[in-house]
Amino acid sequence: xxxxxxxxxxxxxxxxxxxxxxxxxxxxxxxxxxxxxxxxxxxxxxxxxxxxxxxxxxxxxxxxxxxxxxxxxxxxxxxxxxxxxxxxxxxxxxxxxxxxxxxxxxxxxxxxxxxxxxxxxxxxxxxxxxxxxxxxxxxxxxxxxxxxxxxxxxxxxxxxxxxxxxxxxxxxxxxxxxxxxxxxxxxxxxxxxxxxxxxxxxxxxxxxxxxxxxxxxxxxxxxxxxxxxxxxxxxxxxxxxxxxxxxxxxxxxxxxxxxxxx
Length: 262
Ligand SMILES: *[C@@H]1O[C@H](CO)[C@@H](O)[C@H](O)[C@H]1NC(C)=O
Ligand SMILES: *[C@@H]1O[C@H](CO)[C@@H](O)[C@H](O)[C@H]1NC(C)=O
Ligand SMILES: *[C@@H]1O[C@H](CO)[C@@H](O)[C@H](O)[C@H]1NC(C)=O
Ligand SMILES: *[C@@H]1O[C@H](CO)[C@@H](O)[C@H](O)[C@H]1NC(C)=O
Ligand SMILES: *[C@@H]1O[C@H](CO)[C@@H](O)[C@H](O)[C@H]1NC(C)=O
Ligand SMILES: *[C@@H]1O[C@H](CO)[C@@H](O)[C@H](O)[C@H]1NC(C)=O
Ligand SMILES: *[C@@H]1O[C@H](CO)[C@@H](O)[C@H](O)[C@H]1NC(C)=O
Prior knowledge:
Its EC number is 1.15.1.1. By secondary structure, the protein is α+β, with helices and mostly antiparallel strands.
């Protein structure tokens, strides 16, 4: 019909002028959402944790003899409230069809577990899926495009923790995902499995706690550096990146060692 034809012509004109513009400007294509780039959320509420855990039954192939992918996506505000820290853990991934993609999707999974019902990616700035996200400019990507911004699933098991400035645990914003879902896809975008985010806890963050994590930190050493055993005191020596977080543990051990010597 006429309207479609007009649109086609308009789109053609736009793409022709865009191409002309690009050939002048150079090779850089920056795609921005219709509502602009994603905005950094700086008021994420402290201590609020949302977790989405995969179901036991797979959506794509409910009778898969290997069972569903196992794992979860958990997110909480960064300590300064800017962005959220996201921890991803997946295992029992399919043995073919990767690298797998995963995204926050707009709508929750209904009771029947149908991943198609989660609709498209969380995209409050109306950026669209194509062209693919440029991970070096994450503000130009769909807010929900976690694998686009932070890397595809290419290992078994897949474990990752990263910060995302644009997804939020602050209710009321379009980028809020606590009432939504995430979906894992084959490389060809077929949906494998999905899960809903749910409020997991509103307690204080474990980052500053003196709890169980200390138990294993004596084995922690910095990336690439080896731990030199110390003589005399019996206290472990910490080097590199692990050192800061276990500093208090070291002094505790030091005190304990002194007590033993006395
Ligand atoms: C930029 O866009 C053009 C036209 O759509 C495409 O052919 C080209 O591959 C894109 N370049 C990059 C670096 O994405
Ligand atoms: C979006 O961000 C990119 C990269 O920083 C920038 O080049 C572009 O101008 C921004 N677009 C808008 C509409 O702010
Ligand atoms: C997508 O990939 C999966 C795994 O390789 C395959 O089983 C499925 O048939 C593919 N779907 C389409 C639409 O190509
Ligand atoms: C899932 O929902 C879609 C869209 O509503 C529907 O076409 C499809 O048949 C459903 N799939 C299953 C397995 O129920
Ligand atoms: C989720 O919450 C956001 C922000 O409060 C709201 O805009 C959106 O409509 C909600 N989505 C669903 C599926 O409830
Ligand atoms: C450290 O442990 C003590 C005793 O179990 C507890 O009262 C305190 O709240 C803990 N501190 C933090 C930051 O978790
Ligand atoms: C410490 O490490 C052991 C062996 O790796 C593990 O079984 C245990 O659960 C860990 N404990 C804590 C508190 O992380």
